[in-house]
User: Fold TetR family transcriptional regulator from Pseudonocardia halophobica.
Amino acid sequence: MAQAQATPARATRAQATRPRNASRRAELVGVASRLFRERGYHGVGMRAIAEAADIQAASLYHHFASKEELLLESIYVVDRDLVVDQLPILEGEGTYRERLERLVRGHVGHIGANRDAWWVAGRELRALSREKLDEVQVYRRRYQHALGDFLAAGTEAGEFACDDPRLSALAVLDMINGPNEWWEPDGRLAIDELAARYAALALRLVGGDAPPRQARKRRSSAR
Amino acid sequence: MAQAQATPARATRAQATRPRNASRRAELVGVASRLFRERGYHGVGMRAIAEAADIQAASLYHHFASKEELLLESIYVVDRDLVVDQLPILEGEGTYRERLERLVRGHVGHIGANRDAWWVAGRELRALSREKLDEVQVYRRRYQHALGDFLAAGTEAGEFACDDPRLSALAVLDMINGPNEWWEPDGRLAIDELAARYAALALRLVGGDAPPRQARKRRSSAR
DNA sequence: TCTTGCCTAACGACTGTTAGGGAGGCAGAT
DNA sequence: ATCTGCCTCCCTAACAGTCGTTAGGCAAGA
Assistant:
């Protein structure tokens, strides 16, 4: 691929990095996400993105400093925004079971609502520079650790039964990330339906599906 | 990307397609898998693959008709060989629980043993032509359907408790494919350990984790 | 003599990116 | 009310390099 030599045009770059027309930017990110999804980051050129946006390739550099920035913006839609939306659920109101169910529903719903970005975030991370990669992975790890802590606390409280909460967190995330690989809007299940069912399955996975069986550990709460 | 115009050199292509030196071929596929994993299919050029194999780019065409064939061979290691190895387990000896456990262990173990190929198969399918893509997806669907049928039969037999065996098959596969995204050889868990734990979690997921709780449906077999 | 496995050289197309300019709109000065 | 200067958003043209692939040849072994 071509070079990105350190130019004296620092001013130009700084301006392009600072959002100019925000809605136009979001529009272009959406177009790029779709193409990255269809053909992969390296499989799509700036000229192809530009053509899909009915613009010239060079004009993209008015909004974004580089192709990588276009990718990063796509990925933020998933990794940054998901954590911001979801973490409050774990610290919010309700029983551990209720909160886990809300988390899973929100997670699967987010996949359904941001399909292109999820696809891209799932397989194009390696195209990011180390610096940006680290930034994105901090969000991921925060989400993962928060879920691990939550499952540990829920087990402590007798609502779940996880031998190894950290591993259970990975297993739950592996499962609920799965629909990103196969779910399609015109498939057998609507996304809300799928989210509800996966929530129930996630409860099973962490030993929190109490109703049909009795609790594994002594608990004080009724029912 | 460059063209693949219909050439009159059909003979050359046919010869390259028929395996020549099988072990050399496998070696080159291994090198290609590794690079595809690290940088993505479109992120790696034939010259880079050649250099890693200590060869000239043009020489690769002595063994493979095209770059796509190199990718296809990488993917076969997963999608074709996995199905061939694993399907007999489902039709083999043992209780449903035992067979599911063997399947999960084999699946996770296969990921650990073929990391590069799994990574590539997980995210570079779109680079295949429709024709080859369909071929690969037939294997995937066969695996998925076989697991769905198996879970339905196991539920019928009272060993599992799946409301929707097809969906449970997807959930189990989503979970056990997960380690492909994050497992590393020098991590906290050895692959065999992880395989054993994920097998136990998969049993939970399908309602087949009898020992700590009593069976949900009437069964005759002891314990 | 034929095959295998590699080589050098070249093709045309495409890569990310930059330089530089032009049209239109808006703010402030005259 | 008009002019001036700046900012936004887009353009054309070009750069140096890389892409997948093919043609043609050469040395070693059967």
Notes: Chain B touches chain A through 37 residues (CB under 8 Å). Residues 1-3, 20-21, 24, 55-56, 58-59, 62-63 of chain B lie near DNA strand C (CB under 10 Å from a C1'). Chain B is about 65% helix and 0% strand. The radius of gyration of chain B is 21 Å.
